[in-house]
Amino acid sequence: MLPSAPAILKSTSQALSRAARPLLIPRARALGLAAPELVQTDNLPKYNAAKLAGRPFLPGSDTKGFPATLNPIRVDFPAVFHPKAPADADKLPLEEWGAMVREIVDRELSKTGVLLFRGLPIRTREDYARLFDGTGLAPRDYVGHAGRREQLDTNVYSSNDDPLEFTIDIHTELSFMPAPPQKVMFCCIKSPGEHGGGETPVTDMRGVMRDMDPSLVERVRTRQIRYVRNIADKSRSSWNWQSNMHSEDREEVERFLTGKGFSYRWNADDSLSYWFSTDGLSEHPGSGETYWFNQLTEHNGSCFKVHPEFMNETKHISEFPRHTSYGDGEEFSEEDLAHVREVQWKNSYGFHWRQGDVLVMDNFMVGHGRMGCNPGVKERKIIASITKN
After folding, report:
1. Does the keyword section mention Endoplasmic reticulum (predicted)?
2. Residue 269 lies in a domain
3. S-S: 168 plus which of 116, 154, 196, 370, CB 3.0-4.6 Å?
């Protein structure tokens, strides 16, 4: 298919933006500014630790060994950067900030796995899209995702559109897909506030691998994980296969599923069910280190037992929109699910979002989730991009 005129114009604009980068530093000096620079800080922001154990709408939080609260971030996890001259941030082009973000990502991300950029002049999704274009990272689409999200711009999506009070379990993004993203980026447009909840926990997957029961690791290694999807038609739900597949053409959807080696069926109510088995561990594409790399708990049907929209339904857990089991179809035991959740949350860290924050994660080294917002919070706007490189 030939690109549309707007796509050609956008591509040309991005190319011109990249070509113009060497001119931006002299421009800053002509404005009487110091050369733009992002610097790292060890002055970590104050964090009001979120309650975990016994938290409503948090899968597994009622188990005996669940951590009491979410850890505050460490000095190096994530590494925090901000403009050296914050007062001048608005006077510099967002594309140039994006180029500087990319330089730091290339230099630092492999060390810690997650970077937090604060104080950037981002107030809208269009601002973030400009910064993302400036990074030069290769975007990846979300076709085949299994959550609720909306495409907002060419490379920008809502992070998740589940009810605000629901806590999303820890996971690595699209780790069930044959070609998962290497990086995940989030940007805060509207913060729920320091007392509003809604944090994006970041999870040290090296720590998860260290603390996971070796016998469970071996079972997942040898038996794989089966992912099951039962997705409604858009006439019945906002959580629908048309949105997940970015298409309303059944033949196109079938080609996608067949191409990935997935089994599928169309149901009498026009819903789509499909299933497949894949590895639950993965080697990092750069270092070769093996990581716990899956959505075993986040996509398990047990999550829907505490989901505000599904918790009163009496169906079997395998009939909810998502479910996981061993690759041979045997269900994960309640003890195994509890253990995985406890280990993942034990190795997770939180911070309060501020408008303009940009979080960059290595998708193999670092997992993430979403804390539910506290009662009274009406809005939280975090947007996302995923990349191939």
Report:
1. no
2. yes
3. 370
- As a whole number of angstroms, the distance between CA 189 and CA 172 comes to 23
Output the pTM of the full model.
0.90
Backbone dihedral region for residue 255 (phi beyond 0: left; psi -120 to 50: alpha; all else: beta): alpha
Query: Which domain covers residue 114, as residue numbers?
Result: 54-387
Q: Are 184 and 361 in contact (CB under 8 A)?
A: yes
User: Residue 363's Cα: distance from chain center in Å?
Assistant: 8
Kindly tell me the sign of the dihedral angle through the C-alpha atoms of 44, 197, 184, 112.
positive
Query: Per-residue pLDDT tens for 7-65?
Result: 433 443 444 333 333 344 445 545 555 577 999 999 999 999 999 999 999 999 999 99
Decide if 122 contacts 354 (C-beta within 8 A): no
Q: Is residue 22 part of a domain?
A: no
Pairwise pLDDT comparison (90 vs 180), residue with the higher score: 180
The number of distinct structural domains making up the chain is 1
Instruction: Estimate the crossing angle of helix 5-30 against helix 125-135, to 10 degrees.
Output: 80
CA distance linking residue 336 with residue 349, whole number of Å: 22
Q: For position 30, what pLDDT does the model report? A: 53
Given the structure tokens 């009163």, which residue do they identify? 312
CA distance 305 to 319: 12
Angle between helical axes of 94-112 and 125-135 (0-180°, round to 10): 60
User: In the chain, what is the straight-line distance between the N-terminal and C-terminal CA atoms, in Å?
Assistant: 24
Q: Which of 166, 163, 272 is nearest to 228 (CA)?
A: 272
Predicted confidence band of residue 87 (pLDDT cuts 50, 70, 90): confident
Would you say residue 11 lies in a domain?
Answer: no
Contacts of 143 (CB under 8 A, 6+ apart): 245, 246, 247, 256
Residue 29 lies in a domain: no
Can you give the CATH number for the domain in which 354 is found? 3.60.130.10
Residue 32 confidence (pLDDT) = 54
